[in-house]
Design goal:
By secondary structure, this protein is mainly alpha-helical. 64% of the residues lie in helices and 6% in strands. The termini are far apart.
Length: 135
């Protein structure tokens, strides 16, 4: 998932070699208040920051990238919260499938019924193409 936002420039600064980012750094990179990041954490199950021994959030680079993507979807592209959730879930499934982290069957199980139907139809189409090529 590519970085896309004005906050991306701040995020790509000197701190790009860090493994974890504090809430303050995440707020600066994404450009929204801390309470917004906390709310998005609750709404998007794919964002689960680790906690320090003092219970402070420690965001990974991936979390910041997801926050930036959420911000673009909600604020720039005017997606609803549910629409953004569905799109991000779809993008993450496709990314895992592309990286070989899950199989097509597992992707179908993770997907909504309509997505599973799309996969089934695609499989049937591929089978038909193979039959045509054999002829």
């Amino acid at each position: 998932m590519a970085l896309c936002s004005s906050g991306a420039a701040a995020f790509n600064g000197k701190k790009n070699d860090k493994l974890f980012f504090a809430m303050r750094e995440a707020v600066e990179a994404v450009g929204v208040p801390a309470y917004t990041l906390r709310y998005w954490e609750k709404e998007f199950s794919c964002i689960r920051p680790q906690r320090s021994t003092s219970a402070h959030r420690r965001y990974r680079r991936r979390d910041i990238e997801l926050f930036l993507r959420i911000k673009v979807l909600l604020k720039d592209k005017k997606y609803s919260l549910d629409g953004a959730k569905q799109l991000i879930a779809k993008e993450l499934r496709e990314e895992k499938l592309k990286n070989g982290e899950i199989t097509i069957a597992a992707a179908g199980e993770l997907a909504t019924k309509s997505r599973a139907e799309e996969l089934f139809l695609a499989k049937e189409l591929v089978a038909q193409i193979i039959e045509l090529v054999k002829q």
